[in-house]
């Protein structure tokens, strides 16, 4: 009897393991080791992706258009993240139809109430008021606007040899405007910023003009001077006043116009249309909600809304990143995820800085894009290329490659897998010296072999042969996953696997 009970227990254990590691390879699995050891998805039957793994920066997914990256591995990963109770984050929509896909994922997880849709609803978030309420200063406001400006491509000199100079000059103009307006009125609005910058004196003679002295710009400076309460504010305002009343009017027209082009490009978008309504009026939704188990879906796809989607999404992303880096995560605090499909439309120079530090704050990012070139072109110039490389390096949880469309990304992927010592066999046939030997089939074969390091996978592997889903492939999408610092069960740093589009 005892033997029968023992066999039943063993059979039950085997059956349970089969269910967990076999049929449910992409299900969220509970473990006894706390939230960090929870399994989100399975790369293979023997290779789980845990929360601890995900928090190594996050995951970058690559694949040409139609490769299935969004509908297979992306969808599976989204289900795993949303299926983990308590998770929160920011989702930046890439296509108008994304909202339906995300609603289905949240409904499947029983978390429909945890999805806050920003755009096309009554949700609002005043970015500048949010920064002020968080206790951040005028420099933080200026930094946010500059990062948003990267996404808008408002800097015409972006990527040029002198791009750093123009970026610093634009930052100074915005910073001094934010500082002066905040001291004058106790808060900063986009409309007041635009009025202050556009109303600045054009010449030294105008500064002394009686009519100009009654306009918004000098009046704001006078109010700020009257409201100074600390030595720091007094010192900073003196710098701002010197800049606006002496340095700026003395600039050459061409130099000043180059600076103002980028600044007005940002402020014009901020102060007009739906952008003003959504992020410059009131606040009933903010990045704080993402720390309360909510996901904010910015339902403003740039392909459909243009600068509106770029501005609102860029602002939300930067503010969320800053919030997470100030978060003190501990215990069983759930992970925080920033998700962006068509990530090349959302990437900024701040992303690499964020990924380098977010792990200890339990933050991570999921970026989906076609190629490394999409990141290079988005950030621009040689400096942007290095920023893109730094960003992609920190997606240490895994880089997923579906069928690619360009050789350079394929070579980059093959290079990350590395090389191995391989043996190559060769030989040659020497000509016969006598006709009799040739007639009898006597050969003079000389064998040879050599060893050298060769790429484990050739770039062609990433370009051809990977299934891309659809009915003809049984809704299966192949991919190659590469990660560093932690080998797969095979002992390699790469894994050929697949995901279903179901």
UniProtKB/TrEMBL annotation:
InterPro entries: P-loop_NTPase (IPR027417)
UniProt name for this protein: TraD/TraG TraM recognition site domain-containing protein
Species, as recorded: Limnoglobus roseus
């Amino acid at each position: 009897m005892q033997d029968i009970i023992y066999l039943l227990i063993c059979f039950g254990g085997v059956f349970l393991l089969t269910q967990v590691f076999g049929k449910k390879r992409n299900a969220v699995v509970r473990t006894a080791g706390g939230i960090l050891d929870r399994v989100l998805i399975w790369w293979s039957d023997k290779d789980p992706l845990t929360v601890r793994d995900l928090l190594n920066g996050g995951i970058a997914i690559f694949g040409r258009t139609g490769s299935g990256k969004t509908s297979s591995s992306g969808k599976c990963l989204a289900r795993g993240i949303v299926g983990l109770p308590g998770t929160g984050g920011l989702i930046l929509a890439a296509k108008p139809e994304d909202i339906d896909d995300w609603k289905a994922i949240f409904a499947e997880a029983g978390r429909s109430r945890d999805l806050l849709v920003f755009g096309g609803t009554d949700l609002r978030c005043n970015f500048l008021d949010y920064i002020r309420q968080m206790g951040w200063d005028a420099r933080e406001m200026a930094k946010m606007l500059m990062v948003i400006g990267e996404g808008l491509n408002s800097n015409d000199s972006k990527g040029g040899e002198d791009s750093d100079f123009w970026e610093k000059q634009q930052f100074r103009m915005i910073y001094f405007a934010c500082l002066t307006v905040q001291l004058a009125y106790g808060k900063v609005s986009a409309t007041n910023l635009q009025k202050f910058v556009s109303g600045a004196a054009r010449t030294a003679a105008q500064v002394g003009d009686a009519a100009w002295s009654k306009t918004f710009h000098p009046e704001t400076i006078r109010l700020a001077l009257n409201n100074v309460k600390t030595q720091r504010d007094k010192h900073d305002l003196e710098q701002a006043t010197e800049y606006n009343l002496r340095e700026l009017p003395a600039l050459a027209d061409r130099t000043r116009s180059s600076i103002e082009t980028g600044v007005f490009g940002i402020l014009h978008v901020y102060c007009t249309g739906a952008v003003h309504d959504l992020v410059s009026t009131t606040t009933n939704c903010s990045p704080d909600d993402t720390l309360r188990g909510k996901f904010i879906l910015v339902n403003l796809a740039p392909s459909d809304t243009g600068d509106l989607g770029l501005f609102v999404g860029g602002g939300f992303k930067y503010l969320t990143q800053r919030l997470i880096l100030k978060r003190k995560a501990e215990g069983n605090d759930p992970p925080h995820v920033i998700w962006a499909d068509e990530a090349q439309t959302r990437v900024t120079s701040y992303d690499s800085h964020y990924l380098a530090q977010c792990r200890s704050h339990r933050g991570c990012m999921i970026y989906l894009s076609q190629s490394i070139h999409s990141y290079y072109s988005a950030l621009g110039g040689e400096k942007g290329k290095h920023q893109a490389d730094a960003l992609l390096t920190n997606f240490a949880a895994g880089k997923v490659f579906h069928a690619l469309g360009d050789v350079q990304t394929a070579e980059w992927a093959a290079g990350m897998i590395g090389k191995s010592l391989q043996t190559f066999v060769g030989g040659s046939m020497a000509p016969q010296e006598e006709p009799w030997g040739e007639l009898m089939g006597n050969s003079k074969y000389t064998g040879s072999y050599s060893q050298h390091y060769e790429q484990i996978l050739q770039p062609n592997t990433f370009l051809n042969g990977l299934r891309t889903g659809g009915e003809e492939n049984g809704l299966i999408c192949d991919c190659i996953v590469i990660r560093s610092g932690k080998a797969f069960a095979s002992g390699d740093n790469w894994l050929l696997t697949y995901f279903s589009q179901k």
